[in-house]
Amino acid sequence: MPELSRSQLVVYGMVAVAILLLGARWIRSGDGEASGGGGVSFAADSFAPGGEGSRDVVVHVAGAVVHPGVYRLPAGARVTDAVKRAGGLTAKAQGDSINLAARLSDGQQVVVPARGAAGASATSEGPISLGTATVEQLDEIEGIGPVTAQNIIDFRDEHGGLSSIEQLDEISGIGPSTMEALRAGLQP
After folding, report:
1. Of 2, 104, 114, 156, which is most buried by a Cβ count within 10 Å?
2. DSSP state of 174
3. Do residue 27 and residue 52 come from a single domain?
4. Does residue 150 sit in the same domain as residue 176?
5. Which of 47, 67, 64, 66 is nearest to 55 (CA)?
6. Residues 110, 88: contact at Cβ < 8 Å?
7. CA angle 132, 105, 90 (to 5 degrees)
8. Are residues 136 and 104 in the same domain?
9. How far apart, in whole angstroms, are the C-alpha atoms of residue 150 and residue 86?
10. What is the DSSP letter of 11?
């Protein structure tokens, strides 16, 4: 077997390094985005079937989190991923009042309420987020009873979230007159 010259060894070495770097980048592009920049990820559980894992969603995380703001997350991400990206819950956060397992939708606002005197009533603090509201929070809104509240939660979970209040029109028990009454108490 002929011996390789020094310049040939350098070229082969550079090609090998380039292939390794491209392979590492390709592997990381599939795994790195799912973790939200570093934390624990449940990527196998959080991505929707049908290839939707390729589109990002942009969400606004507000309330009792360490770093409120607007964040880009992979499609299929959950509310828990958004809260982690925002630095986690603060000591005053009422984390059990939001559904951390709900899927995020593009343009959604995730509001983490804080404990306090007004914390017992979600309507006294402003509009309730359809993306994170519990059955109990929705039931507090005039025009929504427990059955309709559960229908909203089921619809939200089945469709991967609600991106607008207008989608409520597709839910049984909510008509045009109820929609107008709900606009003040709800946000997507």
Report:
1. 104
2. -
3. no
4. yes
5. 47
6. no
7. 45
8. yes
9. 28
10. H
